[in-house]
């Protein structure tokens, strides 16, 4: 393949990788869609807590120092929301050994999505009412809204897990380490997560990433360095492309 052809391959590979990610998400169906709505509930709870924190700081001796504590708490809450989303999607991805199990999981997701949406609407309406009613009692009012979002979201998530357990029986999945991008020797089920925190429970261990080669963006040629999607090129402005494999 000519260097010009290799050069043209780079944006195509980047676009194809994006399509692969999109296709993976799109194939999840209603179950994983409900997880995205659950994350919105979680984030709204975090934002409501931030509003309450800032409102409380208005009467503090040092409002600026008080408010500085609110932002890290919000960032930590967002991190927790991402972790919850990942686990929720992992639960949805587990195989269904019983006939019709996939349709059952989709039905669980549809019900959960409606549940989360209802909690989200109630929580947002609650917070809006607190702001509209003025400053008196706004802190307790917002905290109550946060409780509505937290407890409501937790109930929806618990109902989703219970529903999925009824669909999937004792289907066994594989534990993937997101750092090394490799499966461990551990196994998991819908009712029993991976034993190590941070690992993802997947239906099956994904195949190893293909070995490609590095293309230098400036020199417009292959460097001879091998790479994979999980092990990128070492140089700056270099892309991992299949056209440079074996070069």
Give a written overview of the molecule.
The chain is of the alpha+beta class. The chain folds into 3 domains: 30-59 and 66-169, no CATH class; 172-207, no CATH class; 208-247, no CATH class. The protein is built from 5 helices and 6 strands. It has helices at residues 3-26, 29-57, 63-93, 101-132, 138-168; strands at 172-177, 182-189, 200-202, 212-216, 221-227, 238-241. A hairpin with a 4-residue loop joins β1 and β2 (182-189). The chain is extended. The model is unreliable at 1-28 and 96-101 (pLDDT under 50).
Please sum up the structure shown:
The protein contains five helices and six strands. It has 247 residues and is an alpha+beta fold.
Number of helices: 5
- According to DSSP, the number of beta strands is 6
Q: Give the count of structural domains.
A: 3
Give the DSSP E fraction (strand runs of 2 or more residues): 5-15%
Which shape, going by the Cα principal axes? Answer: extended
Topology pattern, helix = H, strand = E: HHHHHEEEEEE
Mean pLDDT: 75
Tell me the helix content.
Answer: 55-70%
If strands are numbered along the chain, what order do they take across the biggest sheet?
2-1-3
**Biggest sheet character:** 3 strands, antiparallel
Structural class determined from secondary elements: alpha+beta
Determine the N-to-C terminus distance: 11 Å
Unreliable segments (pLDDT under 50, ≥5 consecutive)? Answer: 1-28, 96-101
Q: Compute the CA-based radius of gyration.
A: 23 Å
């Amino acid at each position: 393949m000519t260097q010009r052809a290799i050069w043209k391959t780079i944006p195509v590979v980047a676009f194809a990788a994006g399509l692969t990610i999109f296709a993976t998400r799109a194939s999840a169906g209603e179950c994983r869609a409900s997880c995205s709505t659950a994350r919105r509930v979680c984030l709204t709870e975090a934002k409501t807590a931030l509003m309450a924190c800032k409102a409380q700081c208005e009467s503090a001796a040092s409002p600026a120092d008080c408010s500085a504590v609110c932002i890290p708490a919000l960032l930590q809450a967002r991190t927790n929301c991402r972790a919850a989303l990942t686990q929720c999607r992992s639960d949805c991805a587990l195989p269904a050994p019983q006939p019709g199990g996939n349709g059952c999981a989709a039905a669980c997701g549809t019900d959960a999505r409606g549940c989360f949406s209802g909690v989200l609407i109630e929580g947002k309406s609650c917070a809006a009412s607190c702001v509209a009613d003025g400053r008196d009692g706004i802190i307790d009012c917002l905290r109550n809204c946060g409780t509505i979002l937290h407890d409501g979201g937790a109930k929806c998530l618990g109902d989703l897990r219970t529903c999925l357990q009824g669909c999937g029986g004792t289907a066994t999945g594989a534990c993937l380490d997101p750092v090394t991008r490799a499966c461990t020797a551990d196994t998991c089920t819908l009712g029993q997560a991976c034993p190590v925190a941070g690992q993802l429970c997947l239906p099956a261990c994904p195949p190893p990433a293909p070995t490609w080669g590095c293309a230098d963006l400036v020199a417009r040629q292959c460097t001879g360095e091998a790479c994979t999607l999980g092990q990128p090129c070492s140089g700056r402005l270099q892309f991992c492309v299949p056209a440079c494999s074996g070069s």
